[in-house]
């Protein structure tokens, strides 16, 4: 009995320490403990990537990586990435609802337009894609003006402020007003119910221990059972908000979902799963990008100066090049592993991947790849994107097509909210820099997040009103 137990434990330990024997031999293995370093050391993702992953990934283009309770293949080489994006049926999308269905995270976002594959994905696209691709851009300008008013009230004695809360209010207001067609009022009021609830549920879900070992969510741990209950309550609260929203003569994300629910195109669960993901992806990802942009402009005064000089220029080429460079160096979603092979496949010329393997990509690694971006890959150089609006948009498009810049994913499954997200960050940065000079709080330690989505960690900014 005891020896059987010991053998069982040893087998579990082996399955964590070593990749499965049928995994490709032609690519290196990142040590299993690397994925845990962010949670248990003071290293951030850039340090972890540089020390433990970069050399291997830049040499081989892909590597074996232990992450979220299993061994995966992770890619940084654009040519390999394109194969992943193009062969949708071999590298089939398989989000958390399939990968870790028992987790609290999977319970939160369910099966949705981002995580689903095949017929289900096509169905969700038919229902919500138009509301994301053709949002009402008008409220963005109004929300950016409100942002300035709130900022003005919050600034006391020139003290630095942690800006994340206010930025989240801005991106929540935008996704509500422009895409979902639901008024969250987060720019009009502080501490709205929705904002408080989102922050609370996020704290419950994104706990390092359960992110690293999602199988622990299978156990009857009191705090996780409580988290499960709170996620269920949030889902029901949010679903009611979507159902009761008014359609002011314009089709919106919420009204499209409501129609699909009423005519039985979507089940109640599918309605909520898709509503939640539009709200989450639609405000969290732009929030991350804005945090990184605030960090960049605060760090480089000359960048602010050049953006200010473009005032009145609708094309704002320099600002666009700053955003491209920020997406390259600090892509909001640094690593995405959510495709599973549906058959045995050879990736590139010799990476033999068995059926049923999770394959993903490291956005951060592609953005810092020296073979693509040269020896200056770690330097912030917006000039690399060109000078004129035409040159910048051509280089940006080319980088996306070649998968040199996969920040918004690519091909058929590329992000639908890109245009909207870029517009809302542009408007806010332009509006803000006309009124304020930004600098980093000298006491803030320059670090990005240790794991998960990428942004500066606990960013604190000093704002100084510009005297005219
Ligand atoms: C800076 C902001 C954003 C970034 C960096 C970003 C990035 C991404 C990425 C990497 C994916 C692929 C995800 C995966 O495979 O798991 C994706 C998909 C998607 N994003 Fe975004 N996103 C952003 C903003 C938005 C916004 C504002 C919306 C609006 C609701 C949105 C809606 C979507 C949708 C619907 C998909 C799924 C597309 C499909 O598979 O058909 N995103 N995004």
Written overview of the protein:
There is one protein chain. By secondary structure, the chain is an alpha+beta fold. The protein has one domain: Cytochrome P450 (Cytochrome p450), CATH 1.10.630. The protein has helices at 2-17, 37-40, 45-60, 78-86, 96-99, 104-109, 118-133, 138-154, 164-180, 193-205, 208-212, 222-244, 253-262, 268-299, 301-309, 317-329, 363-367, 370-373, 389-401, 418-435; strands spanning 62-67, 70-75, 91-93, 161-162, 335-341, 345-347, 351-353, 358-362, 436-440, 460-465. The chain has a five-stranded mixed sheet with strand order 1-2-8-5-3. It has a three-stranded antiparallel sheet with strand order 4-10-9. The protein has a two-stranded antiparallel sheet with strand order 6-7. A hairpin with a 3-residue loop joins strand 6 and strand 7. Helix 9 packs across helix 14 (268-299) and helix 14 (268-299) runs parallel beside helix 20 (418-435). Protoporphyrin IX containing FE (HEM) is lined by residues 113-114, 125, 132, 179, 278, 281-282, 285-286, 289, 332-333, 336, 338, 407-409, 413, 415-417, 420-421. Residues 1-15 form the signal peptide. Keywords: Heme, Iron, Metal-binding, Monooxygenase, Oxidoreductase, Signal.
């Amino acid at each position: 009995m005891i020896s059987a137990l010991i053998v069982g434990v040893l087998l579990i330990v082996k399955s964590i320490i070593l990749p499965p024997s049928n995994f490709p031999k032609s690519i290196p293995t990142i040590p299993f403990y690397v994925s845990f370093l962010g949670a248990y050391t003071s290293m951030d993702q850039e340090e972890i990537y540089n020390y433990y992953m970069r050399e291997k990934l830049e040499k081989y283009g892909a590597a074996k990586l232990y992450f979220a309770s299993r061994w995966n293949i992770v890619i940084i080489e654009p040519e390999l990435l394109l194969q992943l994006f193009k062969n949708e049926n071999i590298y089939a999308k398989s989000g958390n609802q399939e990968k870790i269905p028992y987790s609290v995270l999977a319970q939160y976002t369910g099966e949705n337009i981002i995580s689903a594959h095949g017929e289900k994905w096509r169905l969700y696209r038919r229902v919500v894609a138009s509301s994301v691709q053709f949002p009402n851009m008008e409220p963005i300008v109004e929300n950016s003006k409100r942002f300035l008013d709130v900022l003005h009230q919050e600034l006391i004695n020139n003290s630095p402020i942690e800006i994340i809360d206010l930025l989240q209010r801005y991106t929540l207001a935008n996704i509500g007003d422009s895409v979902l067609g639901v008024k969250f009022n987060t720019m009009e009021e502080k501490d709205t119910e929705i904002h408080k609830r989102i922050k609370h549920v996020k704290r419950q879900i994104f706990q390092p221990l359960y992110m690293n070992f999602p199988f622990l969510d299978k156990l009857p741990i009191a705090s996780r059972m409580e988290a499960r209950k709170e996620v269920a309550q949030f889902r029901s609260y949010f679903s009611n908000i979507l159902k009761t929203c008014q359609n002011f003569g314009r089709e919106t994300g919420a009204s499209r979902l409501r129609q699909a629910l009423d005519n039985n195109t979507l089940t109640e669960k599918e309605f909520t799963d898709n509503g939640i993901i539009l709200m989450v992806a639609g405000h969290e990802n732009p929030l991350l990008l804005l945090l990184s942009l605030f960090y960049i402009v605060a760090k480089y005064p000359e960048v602010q100066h050049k953006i200010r000089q473009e005032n009145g220029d609708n094309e704002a080429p320099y600002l666009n090049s700053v955003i491209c460079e920020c997406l390259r160096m600090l892509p909001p979603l640094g690593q995405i592993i959510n495709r599973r092979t549906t058959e045995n496949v050879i990736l590139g010329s010799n990476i033999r991947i068995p059926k049923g393997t999770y394959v993903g990509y490291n956005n951060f690694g592609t953005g810092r790849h020296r073979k693509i971006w040269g020896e200056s890959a770690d330097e912030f150089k917006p000039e690399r994107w060109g000078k004129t609006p035409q040159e910048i948009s051509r280089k940006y498009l080319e980088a996306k097509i070649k998968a040199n810049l996969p920040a918004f994913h690519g091909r058929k499954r590329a992000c639908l909210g890109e245009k909207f997200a870029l517009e809302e960050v542009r408007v806010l940065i332009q509006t803000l820099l006309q009124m304020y000079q930004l600098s980093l709080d000298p006491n803030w330690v320059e670090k990005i997040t240790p794991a998960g989505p990428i942004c500066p960690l606990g960013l604190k900014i000093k704002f100084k009103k510009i005297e005219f």
